[in-house]
Amino acid sequence: MSLTEHVVSYITDTPAESIPPEAITAAKRALLDTTGVALAGVPEDGPTIVRDMVSRHGPGPVAIIGSAQRAQLLDAALATGTAAHALDYDDTTLPLHGHPTAPLLPAVFALAEERGRSGAALLDAFVIGFEVEARLGHAVDPSHYGLGWHATATAGTLGAAAAGARLIGLDAERTRHALGIALSLAGGSRANFGSMTKPLHVGNAARGGLQAVLLAERGFTATEESIGGPMGFLKLFAAEGEDAPERLEALGESWGIVDPGINVKRYPCCYGTARAADCLFALIEQHDLRAEQIERIDVRVEPGGLAALIHPRPKDGLQGKFSMEYVLTAILLDGEVRLATFEDEAVLRPEAQRFLDRIHTSEGATPPEFAGAPKFAHVEVTLAGGGSLVHAVDEAAGSADHPLSWDELADKYRDTAGRVLDMEAIERGIEHFATLETARSLDGLIADLCPAGD
Amino acid sequence: MSLTEHVVSYITDTPAESIPPEAITAAKRALLDTTGVALAGVPEDGPTIVRDMVSRHGPGPVAIIGSAQRAQLLDAALATGTAAHALDYDDTTLPLHGHPTAPLLPAVFALAEERGRSGAALLDAFVIGFEVEARLGHAVDPSHYGLGWHATATAGTLGAAAAGARLIGLDAERTRHALGIALSLAGGSRANFGSMTKPLHVGNAARGGLQAVLLAERGFTATEESIGGPMGFLKLFAAEGEDAPERLEALGESWGIVDPGINVKRYPCCYGTARAADCLFALIEQHDLRAEQIERIDVRVEPGGLAALIHPRPKDGLQGKFSMEYVLTAILLDGEVRLATFEDEAVLRPEAQRFLDRIHTSEGATPPEFAGAPKFAHVEVTLAGGGSLVHAVDEAAGSADHPLSWDELADKYRDTAGRVLDMEAIERGIEHFATLETARSLDGLIADLCPAGD
Question: What is the ipTM of this complex?
Answer without folding.
Answer: 0.95
